[in-house]
Amino acid sequence: MRYTFEKLSVSQKIRKIASIARDVIKDPARASLFWECVHWIQEDPHPRLQRAFKNIRERQEKLLASPSEWYHLYHDLLALNRETVGEEDFLAPVFDREAPLKKWPAKVLLCDIRSPFNVGSIIRTAEAFGWQEVGLCGITPPVSHPRVAKTSMHAHEWLTIHSFPCAEDGIRFYKEQGHSIVALEITPSSLSLWDFIPPGPFVLVVGNEEFGLSEKTLSLVDTTLSIPLYGRKLSLNVANAFAIASAVLTERLRKQEQEKTETETYPPPSSSPH
Q1: pLDDT grade, residue 273 (50/70/90)?
Q2: DSSP string for the chain
Q3: Distance between CA 173 and CA 180 in Å, rounded?
Q4: Which of 19-23, 183-187, 245-249 has the lowest mean pLDDT?
Q5: pLDDT tens digit sequence for 119-150
Q6: pLDDT tens digits, residue range 145-163?
């Protein structure tokens, strides 16, 4: 390992150490390799490597005490290389549960979403709210796309993922399973998200960032929802729109389950004839 490390350029060495520092957030066992690499650069006289070594040593106690400190170190080391940090690198470190608290009868179908960042963000949000499944249609990037996987924080590993050639195939698939099909789209007949009550298991259909859902796709859905907006802007980023909708719809499902449980536990008294 040391022989391979020594053959790297200065920038590559710093990038390698930064990468291992980020890995430690999810896998503390990587810390031993990190400190071994730090020991190696201590012996290198290059000014940038010495600045990296000093930076690490000065925050050693914080690294041992706080997992999030590794995340900050990752960015500081990249800064020594004057590297541009990608959008997905600004995601905060995540510490996951061993198992989900709940899986709700809700799924999302992504139709021709162009940006892998939007796809990854939606997948992460869907998993965080306990939704069961994500369908990918048309040009939507697959979960094997590195930016989808990175932005989703690999949340796709805990979801069922289906791929379809087109939105119509996806809608047909979920209708055959008995799901209501609900589109998130601004149309003259759209129902306000605030007023919608899920009728049972449903699939939320989300469309392209620029063009939304086609008329053909909209003709196949059972209900169309829109998010009321009160400012000058009349649109939202698709991942933000899904985050809002998924939060509201998940809360509706939670209340439905709570009311059902209360009814079963405390049934209303039967009316007796006078």
Answers
A1: low
A2: -HHHHHTS-HHHHHHHHHHHHHHHHH-GGGHHHHHHHHHHHHT---HHHHHHHHHHHHTHHHHHH-THHHHHHHHHHHHHTTPPPPGGGGPPP----SS-S---SEEEEEES---HHHHHHHHHHHHHTT--EEEEETTPPPTTSHHHHHHTTTGGGGSEEEEESSHHHHHHHHHHTT-EEEEE---TTPEEGGG----SSEEEEE-BTTTBS-HHHHTT-SEEEE----SS-----HHHHHHHHHHHHHHHHHHHHHHHHHHHHSPPPPPPP-
A3: 11
A4: 19-23
A5: 999 999 999 999 999 999 999 999 999 899 88
A6: 989 988 998 889 899 999 9
| Per-chain mean pLDDT for the chain | 89
Tell me which amino acid residue 116 is: P
**Distance between CA atoms of residues 138 and 145, nearest Å:** 15
State both tokens at 204: 């939320």
CA torsion sign for 213, 215, 216, 219 is positive
Q: Are the CB atoms for 80 and 14 separated by under 8 Å?
A: yes
- Cα–Cα distance between 19 and 85 in angstroms, integer? 12
Q: Where are the domains of the chain?
A: 2-90, 106-262
pTM for this prediction: 0.66
CATH class for domain 106-262?
alpha beta
Give CA–CA dist 155/119, Å, rounded.
11
Angle at Cα 143 formed by Cα 100 and Cα 98, nearest 5°? 20
Q: In degrees to the nearest 10, what's the CA dihedral of 12, 17, 19, 23?
A: 160
What distance, in Å, lies between the first and last C-alpha atoms of the chain?
89
Give me the residue label for tokens 């306000």. 192
